[in-house]
Amino acid sequence: MAAKKILMLVGDYVEDYEVMVPFQALLMIGHQVHAVCPGKKSGQTVRTAIHDFEGDQTYSEKPGHLFALNFDFDAVNARDYDALLVPGGRAPEYLRLNEKVLEWVRDFDKAGKPIAAVCHGAQLLAAAGILAGRECSAYPACAPEVRLAGGTYIDIDVNQVHVQGNLVTAPAWPAHPAWLSAFLGLLGTSISL
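The line above is the sequence of Glutamine amidotransferase; the predicted structure tokens follow.
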């Protein structure tokens, strides 16, 4: 298996599990992951938030951890990467205001490279204008944005994944086993036991 180079877009209050688990799992498999944030450099951190499903009308939010970035945002050249990963949480709502971030999302999509987005990560896909005529899962509160972007919101269980072409999307972190497995499939990564 050839190692792949993956760009991960993060920001303050990214969902803790949705950044930590994929980052560590993809590194464990042997892929290279560059976690970047606008305005920040390698070694700096972003704050995470822990979102949980405790029977309320929406998720609860608690302080998470500090997540260390490992690459400079300004040094990114999207053409150098094999895939894009977009965690959820609150970060996507303001990351989508950064034109460079939106340009990268469009570049990955135009090139047909795998794009994995979970939870509120769909906000970046919608803002980048890549969902028209396509299917996308996300946290249910993002369904109107998927539809307004011309996409079809796919309502699936919180632990499920939806794949259409190069897009791998899921509602939230309980989908990690299915979501990461589908993403690895698009990357051509196989794991034998």
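Note on the example: The helical segments are 16-29, 91-95, 99-110, 122-127, 143-148, 176-187. The longest strand covers residues 60-68.
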